Amino acid sequence: MEFNVSQVLRAVAAAVPEREAIVQGDDRRTFAQLVERGDRLAAVLADAGLGCHRERAALEPWESGQDHLALYLHNGPEYLEGMVGAYAARVAPFNVNYRYVAEELRYLLNDSGARAIVYHSSFAPVLEEVRADLPDLDLLLQVPDASGHALLPDARWYDEALAGVHGRPPAEEPSPDDLYILYTGGTTGMPKGVLWRQADIYVAALGGRQLATGEEWPDLAAIVENARNGGTRVLPAAPFMHGAAHWLALNALGQGNTVVLPPEAATFDPAAALATIEREGAGIALIVGDAFGRPLLDELDRGTYDVSSLVLLISGGAALSAPVKAGLLDRIPGMAIMDGLGASETGTQAAQITGAGSPVSTGTFTPGAGMAIVSEDLTHLLEPGSEELGWLAQKGRVPLGYLGDEAKTARTFPTIDGVRYSVPGDRARVTADGLLELHGRDSVTINSGGEKIFAEEVEAALAHHPAVYDVVVTGRPSPRWGQEVVAVVQLRDGFEVTADDLLAECERHIARYKLPKEIVVVDRVVRSPAGKADYRWARRTAEDAAAAAGG
To answer: Which of 210, 456, 495, 516 could be disulfide-bonded to 487 (CB atoms 3.0-4.6 Å)?
Structure first.
């Protein structure tokens, strides 16, 4: 069988209607309330004429036959209600990076063809700047917040709109072919909307496989029975605009678990996250690499928290370095850490689980179902143990393509020996004993003197030094090397260290030709709210340092 996300959540809610689905501070919503409010949003969207206008069979892989709903929100119940309600109305919701300035927001909303938007009042001023340039944006639903910004002209308050309609299921049944859209982060290029059939993303990332066997759920009855046994409390600390965070949330809801959120979601507050874990007894939490892991580690050393309920900490979307991982395991000894590997274009692909007392490493994973390595020329698969460095790929449940981009769809989703793969651009190999070695994203690979150097491996090497709080590595033009490696480093408060000290630590972990030619110290490393490195910013910083030095 194939499933639509709305269908799964409706069945789970019918089985456990009074179980809490979403908790944020004093706001506690049951599964029955989540679905009922989602149905009210679906009615608002349908009354505005939004829905599905062309079925999947009549479309090219890069085309959408549905209307699109932008979710321009901090973490909160409205974000998940927005997804649930849109899916019920056969409208495709998508994520908006709330750090975007007006120009970037204009690009995204035009590229997506958004007809509706749900947004927090905090973002009303930026939306107002571009509103006149978005003639197709018909429906604006504003969620009040602490900013106190007034309702935009022609907008409606979100709760008032929901209160004015019925909460019955929509008359039109959602389809497994309906779209799930995830916009890429745009840290190395312009954001692109990845189009998935919901039936495929459900299996690839949203809980559509049985944990014990890895097999897909055979029917709705099995999904419901699993959900009856749920009840784990799950905390996604990263923003829902990042795929990994709402993947975890939808996984949790589809298994009858409860999503718990810190009261204040505008920024990541490690103290609030730990207090929420303690108060709600969360068993699983999600972070994004060192950008979340280091502040958590610092807060565990500053304060006293009972987080013994936490049995699994998941890190996805960015590397969690070995020193940070070891520190977290030391402070929460009953917990395991899972490094999850995946991408907007692949879903979850591989994982590494480390428990207290186990060897700690970064960059190696156990492959999941459908993962493969394809050759550099995209003509054949590489076998485990091959010395050739290939492309990390995924087969089976993969996306349809990129919204409105036929050429990039063809490049990223090639057919090899009759099988369609997703190849988003990570370099990797599989060892003879079956472990995945991830080398890094090709778009941030540095070609220095004819040698390919992966930014992530240099970052991981530098992160071992105790003075390094955060680091991003980039390349910049060099008359001698073509490109040279530059590390942009944020030091820990109170630490002093020389470049030679950092290079000496780096040399313990990687070959000398990979060492940075310069280390640029900054007050703060810039990352996205989801914790991902901003390589465009890092490159500008490296080039500005060279210009300032007269290079």
So the answer is: 516
Amino acid at 127: L
Let me know whether 50 and 149 are in one domain: yes
State the Cα–Cα distance between residues 445 and 127, nearest whole angstrom: 35
Residue 187 has pLDDT above 60, yes or no: no
Nearest to 120 by CA among 141, 104, 135: 141
Query: Tokens representing 313?
Result: 């900490």
Provide the residue range defining the domain that includes 483: 449-548
pLDDT digits (tens, 9 = 90+) for 274-317: 999 999 999 999 998 888 999 999 999 999 999 999 999 999 87
Task: Decide: pTM greater than 0.90.
Answer: no
Per DSSP, what are the bridge partners of residue 353?
338
Contacts of range 535-538, beta carbons closer than 8 Å, 24 or more positions apart: 535/187, 535/188, 535/443, 535/444, 535/455, 535/472, 535/474, 536/187, 536/188, 537/472, 538/472, 538/473, 538/474, 538/486, 538/488
- Where among 379, 408, 440 does a domain terminate? 440
d(CA 327, CA 414): 41
Same-domain status, 459 and 535: yes
